[in-house]
Amino acid sequence: MTEPHLAQPVLTTPEKPMWWKNRKFWTVVGVILAIALAAGRFVLREHRAEERSRHSAEKELDSFAVGDCVTMSQGKSGTDLTKTGCEVDPSYTVGLHIDASAECSDGKYTQYSITIKDAAVGKLCLAKNLVVGHCYQQGGPGGSTQLVDCAKAGENAYRVVQRFELDDEKRCPEDTTPSRYSAPPRTYCLALPTG
What we know:
alpha+beta, five-stranded antiparallel β-sheet, 1 helix, 34% strand, rod-shaped
């Protein structure tokens, strides 16, 4: 008699689930995509807000034409410029519009710029608009010029002796110090204040 032949069981390994059918995988992918999308929207919104701010700042600077008279005052976020009549004392005359990376042609101009995220948008070069016989000193908002009483003026004060609407320091008397601007062409002859 022959023994019955017993069939050997076939061992099969459980089939690994395919990664694209794995629910956890797709959950993780979904979360990563949602985070990336939210971050992208945030960055885009910030970029658009910065562009709007930059455009607004450029528009504000462009609203001041060469020859306009302005005053400086302390604002919420720094020094503010306001258009005014040229008879206001003291005031400034817009001499030049320059690029943000440029400097005004000499150290006499007061520079005004608007900064967005630590980068200047553009600059204005402002020439002092002073009155003969009056005394002034630096120290107002943004380093602006202030009108002071000649009898009580400090050591950094000066008196305007003469004013010429041209760029010519040779017109000033020898006992004065010339202070000149090329745009608008203007020369002041300055002396120590007298009481």
